Amino acid sequence: MIQENTSILSFWLGKPFAKENKINEQRKKSSIVSDKNFGNTDLRKEDINIPKLIDIDYEELNKFYCAKNAGFVKKYKDGLIAFCNENVTNLQLMSVSVYKNDTKSDNPAQHFISINNNTEFFLDVRDIEYYNSIKEDLNLYVSYKKGYKNKLLHFNFKKNKAVINSVNRLNTYLENQQIEGTYSKNFDAFIDENHITRFVEGLGVSDKFETIKDAIDENLYDSGSYDQDYMNEIVEHQVTGLSNKISKTDVLKLSFENFLVNKLIGLYGMLDTIITNSTEEQLEKLKDEAAIFKVLKLNKGMLNDSKKITSCVKQFIKTVPADADYDSLKKILKTHQNKNIKDSKRDGNAKDQNFSINTTDVVVHLGYILLLLRYTEFGTHLPGIGKIDTKNKSYTDCYIFWQKVRLFNITNNYIEQSDFPIMLDKGKIINDEDLHNEIFHIGKTQSNIIKNTEYTLEDCDIINTDTKLKIKEILKESLNQESGLLIPHNACVEIPDDFIFKYARFVESENFITIFLHDEKDRYATEIFVKGEDDFRYWLYNEHNLSDYQSEENIGNLYLKLAACIRDWKVLIERDSTMTCRGPIVPRNVDTERKRWFYLPRVKYNRINTEEQSKKEKIFFSETRVFSGERREHKRKLQTGMKPSKAQIVLAENRGVYIPEGYTYVRKSVWGKLKKSPREIKYRSKSMHGLLFPFQEDINKAEELVNMSPGGFEEHCEKYIESLGYQVYKKWNYDGGIDIRGIKDNGSRLFVQCKHYLKSGNPIGPDVVTELKGSTDLERKTIEDCDIEMMIITSTRYTHGAAKAAKALNIKLITTDDFLS
Questions:
Q1: Which of 102, 317, 362, 648 is buried most deeply by CB count within 10 Å?
Q2: Is 458 within 8 Å of 537 (Cβ atoms)?
Q3: pTM of the entire structure?
Q4: Residues 28-58: pLDDT tens digits?
Q5: Rounded-to-integer distance, Cα 551 and Cα 560, Å
Q6: Between vectors from CA 499 to CA 498 and to CA 504, what angle results, nearest 5°?
Q7: Cα–Cα nearest to 313, from 368, 355, 353, 240
Q8: What region, left, alpha or beta, does residue 737 occupy, with left being phi > 0 and alpha being psi -120 to 50 degrees?
């Protein structure tokens, strides 16, 4: 019989499975105790050597679920049984949970015992009456899958304080739930037993992180006469062992199950609100609004029993065939979801979910739950895409994945298998924190917000009025003056001076322009612009509390840059040249090997608030109104019943122009026949970034360059040559028409002539090119045989003759613009 004050048991399975010498050695090191003790000095550890063995039929044993990370203790004979898959060759440590009296449980699965701080077992609130009947004299039977096939280990806990404490805590939970009336009281929120089993397995994973935190905080060892080095060794061993037992896939599943439960509770709350605020007649009319309401059969009687609401949802899910087509569900979801986003803005408090609810919300929410249950492999796959790639991702990245992912991005296939969302809170990137420090914080702060992740507040009141007006005017111009072309799919722009994000990725569809902002580890946050409106929805700002990181001015400038990007893509002609398409490249300063298509020069978005700058912007914005209504390549609405010709459809597809139903395509040749003024040509060919963001660093570099002496200019060019991998050397006795000489480790050389004519603005002619060729030929005779390249660097420009001569003589022509930044 186990002592009343015992909460930790050590034992082994006997010589058929382990060596006694090894067990004795492990006993000396068994100073780690359960993380569930919370420093309670009244409870103690007891070694019982080999427990009493009880016979069981093998077929009967196999009826019980063998827990991987966690499971329920199940009713068996006169007590409870726990079936685990632990290593039987080691000393076993079993701890019974003991909580402080003031701790409050918020889970219908109450932690009960832990085996080796690895496999967790829980009490099921639905069996509370049985637990109350046996808590004073509990018989616990433990089976090891790798141990005896027909025997159980038997432990008798008579009046054991830890056992009684755990059962009483579950009683307290039930009392609190009767007062609060939540849907999770008796697992009512869950779909079926398999769902509950998966959820409890997830609890076992989260408990491992709790144990890691306790180990690091030094709460897992006895207060004995151990020196610090020995205790550190124990802690490190414990943390490493636990970390090795947790897979990133397990964490993804944990994130998924928590997310799914919150989605379900959110749906039940929506239905409850609709029933409360509707008459029986109105509820009856709902059946005509959407087919799902015919199955749900909402009525006032459901308010008296929460199980009636949960049952109607579960019944609807069961009516959907198991082999239902994903594409069909996605189409329904996109239609309702896009309508919901496009037609409604959200007010209220995001954390309290104080949002008005419509019937489309219910359709989207229930469809999302179906998608999660049927097409994600329980959190390990993206529907229609494939298995989520956790390579190079942290535990925290995996835990955040389902908490922050948006249905909008899933159904539109905007994210790939290796795309993980970012979470920002209280001035830090949560993804970069250790999960054992954040797992419970994330759960609490997100549990309400993620009930419907599409609904975030949609305003940003900290951007100053002037900047806000510019953002709105730019976005309005983007649609009024558009050329008819879509933004190139997944087109990217660098954001080099942001505190968090390194580049922005744009995706355009019929109704939306979606923007993904990626950080240095290629994690993303989402922003959206709804076509037909004059401002962003500010998902990014509201969901991630950007004001904790950035000044009001920086946030305004970030949104101004995004608006300017949209304007350039929609307004400019010959976009690849005017927007400086740089082809598929790996993003700078981002930990990824994935190449993206980047546009626009790599400029910062700091703005200069001078009178001259304001004047330039005023003139530029006036051009918008001057050219309003001009004919150009565009979409044109047809009269009712008319359709575009096949030729127009083909032309549109080849040009990458999206043509909605009821519209036709006016091709680019119409634009080309228009008589355009020089002002309009400039307007259609100049990126707004050059206007809005002439940032000070480049201005300072340019001014510094103008004032350089010839010698200073040569030194400036030497740094560029060194950046190419050359060691610079000179012949001090003469120039010989070569200003800079560079040599690499393999002996190859580079001869450079520098020409600094910036103040005069004179271009470089072909005479300078031929001079360098002659000087190189002369010096080649005085050095060993080697490869020699030639280069000219100037602060101005080259004539056509110089370019032609350089091509013939294989001489590189460089301007300081090529390496100014």
A1: 362
A2: yes
A3: 0.72
A4: 776 544 433 434 445 688 999 999 999 999 9
A5: 14
A6: 45
A7: 368
A8: left
